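Quick entry between incubations.
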Amino acid sequence: MNDPDIDARGRLVELSTEECLTLLDASAVGRVAWCTREGPVVVPVNYVRLEDAVWISTSAYSALSRQADGTTLALEIDEIDASVSSGWSVLVRGRAERHSGDQVPADLARPLAWPAGQHPVVVRIEVNELSGRRLLPR
Amino acid sequence: MNDPDIDARGRLVELSTEECLTLLDASAVGRVAWCTREGPVVVPVNYVRLEDAVWISTSAYSALSRQADGTTLALEIDEIDASVSSGWSVLVRGRAERHSGDQVPADLARPLAWPAGQHPVVVRIEVNELSGRRLLPR
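Done. Structure below.
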């Protein structure tokens, strides 16, 4: 028997921009990454997408807030299904800037931050690059 | 009624090195990150921890393989429970090197890579830095 999908098993396929945006909008937790002299830092965050950017609430003096000075940051989201050794991931990269007070767009449903405490700063990462991959089940 | 744990809700607590190692050993999928001129890259990978390093199988000409030339890479793992707005994450950072053939330790249960194809290279990330945090439920 020839299974037409047999060659697809375990294959990595690129996601379209539209698929990436749909997955971004369907999730609210990802991992923000930045580069330091001591290597990359990756930490889970809550986010919201609004138009051409993702927005992350943070405290005024967080490491993330300090990074958002025009350098390029990344946000990664994924979903892994270990039972069939498959999953997908989406990576956003772009210029990051700090916003607070009136600088935050009025129509932004301000991203909730799960940790307790004040989060008056919103980091905006422009979606300059968007890519994603799906690993088909074996 | 005074709830003694009321102040702990939504608090971020640091994990001990032992807790981080236990979580690393209990999982097999994380996200490897590296820095490029165009910003950080973060992609899901399978890994195995052996002693003072984490090991990731990859293809010979992958972007990850090219990165593993003595620079510092990161591996992040996490578990998020959206129903109670909590979770934990662990970050490993360290010097990364490519190994293949006889350079791979005999006692390494070679990490399986879910994607189809050949994965003759094993990237070793030394655990030079290990940190983790747990976000307590609100």
